[in-house]
Amino acid sequence: MASSGDDHCVLATAGFGEEDGGKGPAIASSGSDDDGEFPYLLSVCNALGTTVDAKQLPATLEPLSLCMTGSHVVAASRWRR
């Protein structure tokens, strides 16, 4: 999923863990999230396609819709308890 604002765009991707046999792309993490607590990644890219910022989202916040302005990114998901 993607959205754009001004000269930047935001991409939402899902990482893959052990449940898919490790066949998908891995999300690099500075922490120790080996159990897949943060399977979603929002990446803000510039006009050249270079990632300028990235944030991991927990499994309870699956991004279903994205909106981006020149200064904000909004990711919407379903309500989960």
What's the topology here?
Layout: E1 2-5, E2 8-14, E3 40-45, E4 51-57, E5 65-68, E6 73-76
Antiparallel strand pairs: 1-2, 2-3, 3-4, 5-6
Protein model, in words:
- With 81 residues, the chain is an all-beta fold.
- It has no helices and six strands.
- The chain has a domain at 2-18 and 37-75.
- The chain has strands spanning 2-5, 8-14, 40-45, 51-57, 65-68, 73-76.
- A four-stranded antiparallel sheet has the order 1-2-3-4, with no helix packed on it. Strands 5-6 form a two-stranded antiparallel ribbon.
- A hairpin with a 4-residue loop joins strand 5 and strand 6.
Figure out the total of helices.
Answer: 0
Distance between the termini: 24 Å
Largest sheet: 4 strands, antiparallel
| SSE ordering | EEEEEE
Strand ordering within the main sheet: 1-2-3-4
How large, in whole angstroms, is the Cα Rg? 13 Å
Task: Average the pLDDT over all residues and give the rounded result.
Answer: 79
Q: Which structural class should the secondary elements be placed in?
A: mainly beta
* Proportion of residues in extended strands: 35-45%
| Spans of at least 5 consecutive residues with low confidence | 20-25, 29-33
Overall spatial form: globular
| Helix share bin | under 10%
Beta strand count: 6
